[in-house]
Amino acid sequence: MSQHPSSRVQKAREALADRLREIRKDAGISGRELAVRCGWSESKSSRIGNARTPPSDADIRAWCRACTAEDQAPDLIAANRQSAGAHVEWKRLQRAGLRRLQESTGDLYRQTKTFRVYVSDVIPGFLQTAGYASALLTSIAEFRGTPDDVSEAVAARIRRNEVLSKGRRRFSFVLEESVLRYRMCSAETMAAQLGHLLGVLDLQNVAVGIVPLSDERDMWPMPTFTIFDDKRVHADTLDAASTLTQPSQIELYARAFERLSQQAVRGAAARALIADAVASLG
């Protein structure tokens, strides 16, 4: 099989093949012996080991079993499944406008029971008012040069956010205090947004923690990410949206969220930080 037309996907396949070869070498067996243990032709193990043929889930399990490394199979299978869609450029996602992007996550949001959200840049989408979302999405559309469907995108986001109050879902948010200070909109719109955030603190299924700017910390600020149950992570960068499904990746982000959460203040202390941000608007 020829290389995948996407260099990003091909690199992911090559990384997986490298890991499989390392497992074989650590087991001290040759490619021929691996093929015998798996019941394959020697050419099949060579094609998989050299990233010419993407392995199936069963192939990965057989490879790991032959190398007495069954514990590594779940991560490798997840890596194999996500290789084609783990990193998707925003340009591609937003090509048809922002409304479709808001609607594309609707099923995932409805299926998830526990959300863990860390933000270091803007108010979480779940908690945005229409005014704040409009200002933010307008900025994104202008920067990326996407079709101007901001009004429709805002309406779609507000509809999507109904999961906050429908069903038995739990939400845990950790915000950097800087999020309260970044002015993505007019003072009036920002005041309304912060007022809405104060109201969210009263919801029984929502926990909000804020990491104070002035406190000493042992976990650095990092790019925004969302953990959906214990099944996947969405981590965003300027150029791409990453979907991570490997158990080790999810565990890493869950550990980071826990550390950040421990540094956050809640209740009256969180309210005081929000009130101070409102007061700073003048």
Describe the structure.
Strand 5 (225-228) and strand 6 (232-236) form a beta hairpin. The chain has helices at 7-27, 31-38, 42-49, 57-66, 73-82, 90-93, 98-104, 106-111, 130-144, 150-160, 178-181, 187-200, 247-262, 267-280, and strands at 87-89, 114-119, 170-176, 206-211, 225-228, 232-236, 240-244. It is elongated, with a radius of gyration of 23 Å. A 7-stranded mixed beta sheet has the order 1-7-6-5-2-3-4. It has 2 domains: 7-82, 434 Repressor (Amino-terminal Domain), CATH 1.10.260.40; 87-280, Endonuclease, Chain A (2-Layer Sandwich), CATH 3.30.870. It has 282 residues and is of the alpha/beta class. Residues 1-6 have low confidence and may be disordered. Helix 4 (57-66) packs antiparallel against helix 5 and helix 9 crosses helix 10. The longest helix is centred in the N-terminal third of the chain and has 21 residues, at 7-27.
Features:
single chain; 282 residues; alpha/beta; 434 Repressor (Amino-terminal Domain); Endonuclease, Chain A; 2 domains; 7 strands; 52% helix; disordered N terminus; Cro/C1-type_HTH; Helix-turn-helix domain-containing protein; Lambda_DNA-bd_dom_sf; DUF5753
Query: How many separate structural domains?
Result: 2
Report the CATH topology name of the largest domain.
Endonuclease, Chain A
Strand content: 5-15%
The DSSP helix count reads 14
Question: What global shape is seen?
Answer: elongated
- Give the class from helix and strand content and strand pairing: alpha/beta
